[in-house]
Amino acid sequence: MSKVDLAQFHKAFYEESLDGLDAMEQALLALDEGAEDPELINVVFRAAHSIKGGAATFGFTDVAAFTHVAENLMDEVRSGRRPMEKAVVELLLRSGDTVRDMLSLSMTGQPAATAESQALLAELSAMVSGVAVAPVAAAKAAAPAEAIEGWDIAFRPFDYLLKSGNDPARMFRELEALGPLAVTCDASKLPALADMDAESSYLGWTLSLDAGAKRAAVEGVFDWVDGDCDLTVTPRIAAPAPVAAAVAAAPVAAAAPRTVRDPAANSESSSVRVGIEKIDTLINLVGELVITQSMLSQFNDGVDASQLEMLRHGLAQLGRHTRELQESVMSIRMLPISTVFNRFPRLVRDLAQKLDKKVVLDMRGETTELDKTVLEKIGDPLVHLVRNAIDHGLEMPDKRLAAGKGDTGTLRLEAFHRGGSIVVEVADNGAGLNREAIVAKAIQRGIIATGEGMSDEAVSDLIFEAGFSTAAATTDLSGRGVGMDVVRRNVMDLGGTVAIRSVQGSGTTFTITLPLTLAIIDGLTAAVGEEIYIVPLVSIIESVQVKPDTVRSVAGGGELFRFRDNWMPIVRLFDVFGCAGQRRAVDEGIVIVVEGEGTRIGLFVDELIGQQQAVVKSLEANYRRVTGISGATILADGSVALIADVTGLVRMQARRKAA
User: Fold this and answer.
1) CA-to-CA distance for 445 and 449, rounded, in angstroms?
2) What secondary structure does DSSP assign to 410-451, as a single string?
3) Between the CA atoms of 360, 365, 367 and 372, what dihedral angle is there, to the nearest 10 degrees?
4) Strand partners, 569
């Protein structure tokens, strides 16, 4: 009998384990809030038991040993021998986080038994056995500080991070305070920060720190990046030291590197769980298409007058079934936003405890569905908004009581459909935005000359400026305005918008509007010479025919035209993409007014053809990345039309203006 290769099942085990850990975390949070449902305790026990069994089956012995001890602790709670108190909940929540890390390491072939996991394993074992072991002592036993002679660090900030007013020199100064530091730039080409965008080449540093500092001190230097980087911190061990194992089944391994990555990237999965009813619908539609194809195949030899009506009926039926099939296939990619919302109860709980605040999380519309791709990319902006709302939006309990409010603040997360878009709101009933402080900071930074005459909406938009913050001191969590430019950029990259509504003393609401899917877009088809381009409707403000007397030339060869009392640049697409435009005079063609990243420009084209739905094909996967183009689609005649990237065109215009 041939031996079965279990490696083929590793991915399925990993994804099922993550689902189990999510269910375990939700149950623990409910228990932490005082729920007394015995089934919640069983959920936690079953999750630990299933992961232990799967890990043992697939040879992940470190994970199996760890979850075995966690399972023993839950068995004591389930049998009534131990109460489900807050200390148990806290330890099990930390254990769930550790199992996630151990699974990630195991899936990449790295040792899962890190110093951190062994220290926590000692705490779990101590609680089960009833022996008091201090967490700090356990950590020291697992990884003696004197054994570490230095640290090797690989740090690569995501491109947008350094454009947000952040200074990497701060990181170098703090590391140098820990010991001698050597820095090497990894970039083969280091672009000017002003020119950095999503197309920039690799930017990063390799650092060597000669100091036996604690891991927490080294990693604490990078708190300011808030997960917006690739980071690997690896200790250099002087010599192996004998360490007593906390549990015989879980031998201590050297501390493995800790990798911090983009939360949105971590949430991505190559598989989708689909309800059986959607599969049944798809099968039925394919069956209908087969019948229709059979009906039309009888006309292979031509059509006489008596059969013409039957042919028309068959073609109409084919078109109807094709549309239904398209909608059915698209529905398979639609997932409930609860997969993103479910991460926030834990985040809110931990932040509230850290800041000594009382916060109630109110989640609504968790069943609202949107495209899997959009879902994976919206998580990071929402994390930024939630952290800022708790840290700087909601007041401390004593200040809330002094203001006549309850001591507990409310944070509302809500998702709902509006037209052809999905709307996500993040609202708090805190202090609201301070108009005077925002205006004063903007004047100080030279963003505006005066705040007189500015609407509340215009003042609120100032917090989206790169690095803008009114906080007196930046915390390791957030600052109202810090990272907000990243939020807006990420949302706009998805073809969405973000707006603010704030009432001082009453709270702030951030409203994110997103397309339901990125796989199919509604666009305006425009001709430029022999080429066809599609401009996404979500970015279009208006299409106008410009009169020559409303156009002005500016230094450097640029053009501006007057649009509703404002002057904005004209971007001639035949110049940008190097094609032969048939119309050169501005009054002969059409200017499409579009908006991206809060900036409006006019795209000059020969003529407008019409509006259509476009199935987006990746240009990068089939050719290469092209600045100003987000993808391509195939038209009815079989020709290829390129889809304009409005955000990229706006950035190109901004760089041209700066030059």
Assistant:
1) 10
2) EEEEEEEEETTEEEEEEEE-S----HHHHHHHHHHTTS-S--
3) -90
4) 560
CA dihedral 81, 87, 92, 95 (to 10 degrees): -130
Sequence-distant contacts of 318-324: CB under 8 A, at least 24 apart: 318/289, 318/292, 318/293, 321/285, 321/288, 321/289, 321/292, 322/289, 324/285
Same domain for 555 and 632, yes or no, is yes
Residues 573-582: pLDDT tens digits?
988 888 887 8
pLDDT at 607: 92
Q: Of 598, 601, 369, which is closest to residue 492 (Cα–Cα)?
A: 598
User: Are the beta carbons of 201 and 259 closer than 8 angstroms?
Assistant: no
What is the C-alpha separation between 500 and 434, in angstroms, rounded? Answer: 13
The pLDDT assigned to 658 comes to 64
Number of domains in the chain: 5
- Whichever domain contains 625, its CATH number is 2.40.50.180
Q: Which residue(s) pair with 571 in the sheet?
A: 603
Q: Give the tens place of pLDDT for each residue, 171-194.
A: 777 788 778 888 777 544 444 444
- Of 116, 143, 170, the domain-final residue: 143
Nearest to residue 495, comparing CAs of 510, 483, 513? 513
> Is residue 324 domain-resident?
yes
Residue 139 has a pLDDT of: 40
- Taking the whole predicted model, whether its pTM rises above 0.85 is answered as no
- Could you say which residues of the chain have pLDDT below 50? 1-2, 132-146, 187-202, 240-267, 479-482
Return the pLDDT at 267: 46
Phi, psi of 328 (to 5 degrees): -65, -45
Q: How far apart are CA 67 and CA 52, in angstroms?
A: 5
Q: Tell me what pLDDT residue 160 has.
A: 59
DSSP class per residue in 232-249: EEEEEESS------SBTT
Measured CA distances, 454 to 446, 448, 563, 565, 575 (Å):
15, 10, 20, 17, 37
Handedness of CA 262, 267, 271, 277 (dihedral sign): negative
Q: Tell me the helix, strand and coil percentages in the chain, rounded to 5.
A: 45, 25, 30
Phi, psi dihedrals of residue 221, rounded to the nearest 5°: -65, -25
E strand or H helix at 562, and its extent? strand 558-563
Q: How far is CA 261 from CA 171, 186, 230, 314, in A?
A: 18, 18, 5, 53
- The token pair at 76 is 């004591």
Tell me the C-alpha distance between 509 and 424, whole Å: 10
Q: Which domain holds residue 223?
A: 144-242
CATH of the domain at 75: 1.20.120.160
Per-residue pLDDT at 517: 74
The vertex-243 CA angle with 239 and 247, nearest 5°, equals: 150
Phi first, then psi, for residue 163 (nearest 5°) are -90, 0
- Tally of CB atoms within 10 A around 270: 6
